[in-house]
Amino acid sequence: MSMTDPIADLLTRIRNAHLAKHASVDVPASRIKMDIVRIMKDEGYVEDYQAVEDSRHGMIRVGLKYLPSGAAAIRGMQRISRPGRRVYRGKSEIPKVLNGLGVVIVSTPRGILTGSACHRDGVGGEVLCNIW
After folding, report:
1. Which of 40, 42, 63, 77 has its CA 20 to 30 A from that of 107?
2. Whole-model pTM?
3. Is residue 70 in some structural domain?
């Protein structure tokens, strides 16, 4: 099976692990996924993450975060730009997620940034996904 959209795979694995109430989930490592997971941790959506060595090219172990009620800290994730339909936005066109309650993750010339960091730094780029 060839992987056409590794970012969608990352989001799906996290979503499925939350539904199954797992404490953590392993995803195949890549630099872009590491950056996305780092933003998720910085924004408080995942507990922690770490690179884990395996026989191939490594994994990222993502520690999932739950609220005291037992609900997942992530209420929703949406892939925006897909391999078949790329979505690019200028610095002034980067969308807000749920009026600023969520976070939009954007791939810019300065690396993977949140929408608010894009507004602050004045850069646009490819809108990867929304998380809320």
Report:
1. 63
2. 0.91
3. no
